[in-house]
Amino acid sequence: IPFVLILVCCMVFTVAAQTTDTMTVYVDQTNGADTNDGLTETTAVKTMDAAYALLNENLSESGTGTIVLVSNYTHAFAAAKERICTSVPSHAYTVVITGKTADTAFLLKNSKQSYLQLCGPTKFEKVTVSINSGSNKFISIHGAGVNGSLTIGDNVTTSDNADLRPTLMAAPYENANDTASSGKPIYMEINSGAWRNVYAGGYTNAVTGNSTLVFNDGLASKISVNYSSTHTGTAQITLNGGTVNELSMPSANSGGKVAGDVTVTFVGSDVKKISSVGTHNSGRTYFDLAADGLI
């Protein structure tokens, strides 16, 4: 009896994970659960870390993810230096952190001086950003440096109490080293809110790379390139609007050093005071008076 041998070839297909260019994740620290999908207010996750994990799993590198705080969110520091997202080392996509309403608060809580590190391009908008009452008044938010800009967008408010206003720094709290091949500046833009101090560079750790700060509106108690670190590279500070109580150049502390030219362009900010603090290892500070009668 003849027989026919039929060979069935099995083909294995690998399906690539689907990514999206936009995604919104809801965070409710009061009623959320990290086992939820985070896609609606009623299925919100509980922590920012869970929100970042969802964005990282689904967003394309060029995408934008929005984290909506459904209720007030408190970041309680367990250590002095922490990242906003422990599950994601860094990200290329943009993250927008916003509140359900402008009164929704993102609070920073620690009894010691603390530093919150962002992990990539980040924008805050329509949210209250403040230090939790009773915490140390020296708590800062750090941009990702050459790995991503820090933007304070529209309708961001802070505390009426000056001691509860965070400091903003464009550079990470660790050493921020640019490379010649990256060509990326350290960038920060401020459009609203009242802030303790604003640094175009970093705090106590060295920064290598060119930095840009654009101050469009809001209030800054002090603006400088850095605090007591060494900043190697140029710095461009453009003052378009808002109020600056003190412009301290090039640094905010006598131990601060800048190796590179600093250019401050005055357009429309109300600058109350200019101080000379810190030293230039090389380069100079230049004042560009783009509008008349500002000083």
Please characterize this protein's 3D structure.
- The protein has 295 residues and is mainly β.
- It is 4% helix and 42% strand.
- It has one helix at residues 48-58; strands at 20-27, 59-69, 73-76, 81-83, 94-99, 105-109, 114-117, 122-125, 127-131, 139-142, 150-152, 156-157, 167-169, 176-177, 186-190, 194-199, 207-208, 211-215, 219-224, 230-232, 235-239, 243-244, 247-250, 257-259, 262-266, 270-271, 274-277, 279-282, 285-289.
- Strands 1-2-5-8-11-15-18-21-25-29 form a 10-stranded parallel beta sheet, covered by helices on one side.
- Helix 1 links the parallel strand 1 and strand 2.
- The protein starts with 19 loop residues before the first strand and ends in a 6-residue tail after the last strand.
- Mean pLDDT is 89; it is low at 3-16 and 178-183.
Low-confidence stretches: 3-16, 178-183
- The total count of helices amounts to 1
What's the overall average pLDDT, rounded?
A: 89
Distance between the termini: 105 Å
SSE succession:
EHEEEEEEEEEEEEEEEEEEEEEEEEEEEE
The best one-word shape is globular
What is the topology?
Layout: E1 20-27, H1 48-58, E2 59-69, E3 73-76, E4 81-83, E5 94-99, E6 105-109, E7 114-117, E8 122-125, E9 127-131, E10 139-142, E11 150-152, E12 156-157, E13 167-169, E14 176-177, E15 186-190, E16 194-199, E17 207-208, E18 211-215, E19 219-224, E20 230-232, E21 235-239, E22 243-244, E23 247-250, E24 257-259, E25 262-266, E26 270-271, E27 274-277, E28 279-282, E29 285-289
Parallel strand pairs: 1-2, 2-5, 3-6, 4-7, 5-8, 6-9, 7-10, 8-11, 9-12, 10-13, 11-15, 13-16, 14-17, 15-18, 16-19, 17-20, 18-21, 19-22, 20-24, 21-25, 22-26, 23-27, 24-28, 25-29
